[in-house]
């Protein structure tokens, strides 16, 4: 049985979008972000410039082609967590499951250098992270029945989003993520030479009525 036409159209759109994003990244890494135009990307992907803009809002968005899905997955990590699982633990699992595979990609270091060495992309990342913070903070706040601008929820969202940055460059990224979440869960304590940070203590879930 064949799938409905809508399914085929969506697959075709997704394939075109991915081809454009792949072409853009290839050019950005080879020439540098500032030396590549939208027209260059369109020619590389064998599409029109109008098609590029149909799928992406601008040149920066070509670098972060999964930005929209990031919000969706962050919210899902909070709202669809297992019964009894705390918000913090759900986000810990989400970071481990999503960021570690990305950081293990052979082009990750090259991509990261592209972003950090390009002022326009660094500025875009800050705006993007602010949007993700708002979205995640609101999802966390909803779990506890508080206003979306609740400082505890906004602070948690921002800190969680910064964890991959803090873990970047560590020999054992997974251990670094776990250690940082341990600090978040247990509270900051003055480090003692030779004394490891204790493992995270399970945080209370939203069902308990306490922020986790």
Automatic annotation (TrEMBL):
<dbReference type="InterPro" id="IPR009057">
    <property type="entry name" value="Homeodomain-like_sf"/>
</dbReference>
<dbReference type="GO" id="GO:0000976">
    <property type="term" value="F:transcription cis-regulatory region binding"/>
</dbReference>
<dbReference type="InterPro" id="IPR041347">
    <property type="entry name" value="MftR_C"/>
</dbReference>
<keyword id="KW-0805">Transcription regulation</keyword>
<protein>
    <submittedName>
        <fullName>TetR family transcriptional regulator</fullName>
    </submittedName>
</protein>
<dbReference type="Pfam" id="PF00440">
    <property type="entry name" value="TetR_N"/>
</dbReference>
<feature type="DNA-binding region" description="H-T-H motif">
    <location>
        <begin position="37"/>
        <end position="56"/>
    </location>
</feature>
<dbReference type="Pfam" id="PF17754">
    <property type="entry name" value="TetR_C_14"/>
</dbReference>
<keyword id="KW-0238">DNA-binding</keyword>
<dbReference type="InterPro" id="IPR023772">
    <property type="entry name" value="DNA-bd_HTH_TetR-type_CS"/>
</dbReference>
<dbReference type="InterPro" id="IPR001647">
    <property type="entry name" value="HTH_TetR"/>
</dbReference>
<dbReference type="GO" id="GO:0003700">
    <property type="term" value="F:DNA-binding transcription factor activity"/>
</dbReference>
<keyword id="KW-0804">Transcription</keyword>
<dbReference type="InterPro" id="IPR050109">
    <property type="entry name" value="HTH-type_TetR-like_transc_reg"/>
</dbReference>
<feature type="domain" description="HTH tetR-type">
    <location>
        <begin position="14"/>
        <end position="74"/>
    </location>
</feature>
């Amino acid at each position: 049985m064949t799938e409905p036409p809508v399914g085929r159209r969506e697959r075709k759109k997704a394939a075109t979008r991915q081809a454009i994003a792949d072409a853009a990244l290839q050019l950005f890494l080879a020439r540098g972000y500032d030396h590549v135009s939208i027209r260059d990307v369109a020619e590389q992907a064998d599409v029109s410039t109008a098609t590029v803009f149909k799928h992406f809002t601008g040149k920066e968005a070509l670098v972060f082609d999964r930005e929209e899905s990031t919000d969706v997955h962050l919210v899902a990590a909070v709202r669809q967590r297992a019964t009894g699982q705390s918000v913090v633990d759900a986000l810990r699992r989400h970071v481990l499951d999503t960021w570690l595979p990305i950081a293990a990609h052979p082009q990750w270091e090259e991509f990261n250098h592209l972003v950090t060495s390009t002022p326009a992309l660094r500025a875009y990342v800050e705006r993007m992270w602010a949007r993700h913070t708002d979205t995640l903070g609101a999802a966390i706040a909803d779990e506890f029945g508080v206003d979306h601008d609740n400082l505890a929820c906004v602070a948690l969202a921002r800190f969680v989003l910064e964890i991959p940055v803090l873990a970047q460059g560590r020999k054992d990224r997974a251990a670094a993520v776990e250690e940082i979440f341990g600090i978040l869960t247990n509270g900051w304590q003055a480090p003692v030479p030779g004394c490891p940070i204790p493992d995270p203590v399970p945080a209370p879930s939203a069902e308990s009525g306490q922020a986790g």
